[in-house]
């Protein structure tokens, strides 16, 4: 199969964002890498179904999301690590404040309902519009907006964010919480 050079470059350019989204969904780097690889293989196998001129990233994210949910259904019978005790033994403690902040954010994200976390990551971290996120999630735009709003509010509660001064300089945290609270939204934009 021969791909047009611009399409090939667009697929390769999407890999870092796909990987970040896959890590946030699965919580495991190995599974995330497998998801990205499976996404690209599925995209290449069905490249004739991609409509030129539409959003390639949204199409790829939809494939990844569908693969994740299919895999999740298959793996439901596996032994889980709900309190993270086993996973905590597999990593070393971070030695910089930004790593600690990121771990706090990751832990708080893990406590959000999956639909809210997914919407927040698509809009806040990946930069998709509400419309594109709605297409990826297969729901109405208003539903995505509601999920993002509830997720931001809950994330702020979980991270004990009461004001703009409580936020560090971490761009991901700021993006995730950017619309929580009136004055902070403008300051974070």
Question: Can I get a quick summary?
Answer:
By secondary structure, the chain is mainly alpha-helical. Helix content is 69%, strand content 0%. It folds into two domains: 1-79, RNA polymerase sigma factor, region 2, helix turn helix motif (Rna Polymerase Sigma Factor, Chain: A, Orthogonal Bundle); 95-189, Orthogonal Bundle (Arc Repressor Mutant, subunit A), CATH 1.10.10.
Q: Layout of helices and strands, plus pairs?
A:
Elements: H1 5-26, H2 29-45, H3 56-75, H4 85-89, H5 97-110, H6 114-125, H7 130-137, H8 141-158, H9 171-177, H10 182-188
Quaternary structure: single chain
Order of helices and strands: HHHHHHHHHH
**Shape, principal axes of CA atoms:** globular
Strand content: under 5%
As residue ranges, the low-confidence spans are 180-189
Number of strands: 0
The CATH architecture of the largest domain would be Orthogonal Bundle
CATH topology description of the largest domain: Arc Repressor Mutant, subunit A
Largest sheet: none
Domain count, please report it.
2
> How helix-rich are the residues, as a percent range?
55-70%
Q: N-to-C terminal Cα separation, in Å? A: 43 Å
Structural class: mainly alpha
How would you state the average pLDDT, rounded? 80
Q: What is the helix tally?
A: 10
- What value does the Rg take, in angstroms? 18 Å
CATH superfamily of the largest domain: Winged helix-like DNA-binding domain superfamily/Winged helix DNA-binding domain
| The top level CATH class name of the largest domain | Mainly Alpha
């Amino acid at each position: 199969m021969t791909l047009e050079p611009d399409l090939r470059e667009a697929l390769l350019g999407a890999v870092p964002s796909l990987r970040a989204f896959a890590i946030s969904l699965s919580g495991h780097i190995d599974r995330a890498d497998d998801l990205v690889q499976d996404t690209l293989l599925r995209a290449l196998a069905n490249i004739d179904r991609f409509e030129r001129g539409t959003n390639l990233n949204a199409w790829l994210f939809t494939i990844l999301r569908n693969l994740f949910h299919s895999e999740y259904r298959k793996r439901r019978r596996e032994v889980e690590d709900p309190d993270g005790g086993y996973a905590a033994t597999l990593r070393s403690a971070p030695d910089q404040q930004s790593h600690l902040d990121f771990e706090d954010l990751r832990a708080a994200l893990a406590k959000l309902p999956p639909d809210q976390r997914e919407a927040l990551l698509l809009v806040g971290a990946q930069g998709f519009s509400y419309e594109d996120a709605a297409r990826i999630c297969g729901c109405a735009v208003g539903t995505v907006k509601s999920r993002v709003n509830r997720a931001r509010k809950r994330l702020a509660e979980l991270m004990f964010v009461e004001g703009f001064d409580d936020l560090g300089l971490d761009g991901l945290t700021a993006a995730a919480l950017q619309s929580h609270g009136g004055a902070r939204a403008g300051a974070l934009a």
